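Hi all, long-time lurker, first post. I run a small reading group and we've been trying to get comfortable going from sequence to structure in the token notation. Rather than ask abstract questions, I figured I'd post a concrete chain and ask someone more experienced to write out its structure so we can walk through it together at our next meeting. Sequence below, copied exactly:
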Amino acid sequence: QVVLVESGGGLAQPGGSLRLSCAASGFTFNTWAMSWARQAPGKGLEWVAGIYSDGSGTFYEDSVKDRFTISRDNAKNTVYLQMNNLKPDDTAVYYCHVPAGNWWGQGTQVTVSS
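-- Answer (accepted) --
Happy to help. Here is the structure in token form:
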């Protein structure tokens, strides 16, 4: 059974930082690419970032490029999203995602507000 558990969300001020984590189990983590996606209030799901199974390649949506960093620790079956210089438009529920398997976590809320 595939399980993805996100953590690390919360309230941040504009310009602040948060680090999201996604702990994975139930599949061979180091053979699957991973992604983060988000859904803002009243909006559709938006892909944010992706990373190859071995971490050799990372990809970002334009609005988060140079502010967010996706990484993974295959020894810990965990993928991370470091979010810096947060903006109010980053407010959303953030989801961990395995694209090839279409597996999703339950999401973690990120709110950016002063």
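A couple of things your group might point at:
DSSP finds no helices and eleven strands in the chain.
Residues 88 and 112 are 5 Å apart (CA to CA).
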